[in-house]
Amino acid sequence: MDAVKKSLISLHLTVILLGGTALFSKLVPLSAADITLVRSVFACIALFAFLKLAKNRITLNSKKDYTVAVGLGVLMALHWVTYFAAMQYAGVSVGMIALFTFPVITVLIEPFFERVRLVWQDIVSTLTVIFGVYLIVPETSLENDVTLGVLIGIASAVLYSFRNLIHRKHFKHYSGAQAMAWQTLVIALILLPFGSESITNASTDAWLMLLLLGTVFTALPHALIAASLRHLRAKTFSLIACMQPLYGVFLAILLLDETPTMSALVGGVLITSASVYETLNTHKLHNNASD
Predict the structure, then answer these.
(1) Which end of the chain is more exposed for a tag (fewer CB within 10 A), N or C?
(2) Tens digits of per-residue pLDDT, 136-156?
(3) Residue 262: CB partners within 8 Å, gap ≥ 6?
């Protein structure tokens, strides 16, 4: 098996693992903030250990980069907390679909970061996503947990979009493992004062789940991403990453017995389709700009 095929298999495994993180919002009986805190501690230890064992550089290049790392860590902390909260309110299937509005949200806010202009296709994608969100929202009242979860999921998508744009502009010269090592350190330090007693009172099973979440489902995927990108184009990674909600929904149906409604599934297909289109279009525009 050649390096490219191995990288593709590795990348699909990575996306399955990242999609599987949503399951822990239901499997671990803790708040979204507590899950994020313990996840970041385990992930931070595992990522720095990986960098050390792989003899990769750990320190950053400048004081400015440490400042950027702090900013990215703050955004990731807010993103992870709202990510798990969305799943706890709306369920994994609907929460994952709401989160994957982020590629289209990224396109809408990207002009504030880079010299790109919106085109009519972007407006069509936005309208498609809005209609998809309309289909997954059961009612307009915030008293409905699913509706609230969808809104929190979209807020998480906005935070993730800002984080990704800032990362691409100021932090892309670092590997995924090194970048996430510092960001998880920041997340842990930020959330440590807010950790509740529920963490120390958690069962052994819950701690094992959190260890699994922080290492196998967080640290490992980011290490695999760095390895995969040595042999695959960023475009390939982005397109396969768009399959994350599909893997997440499938795992939720299989392992959590969730039964998303037909309208939610149709909404998910619309949102995912718009995400795939914008991913393709973004890479096309960047390639044209670099020619």
Answers:
(1) C
(2) 887 777 788 888 999 999 999
(3) none
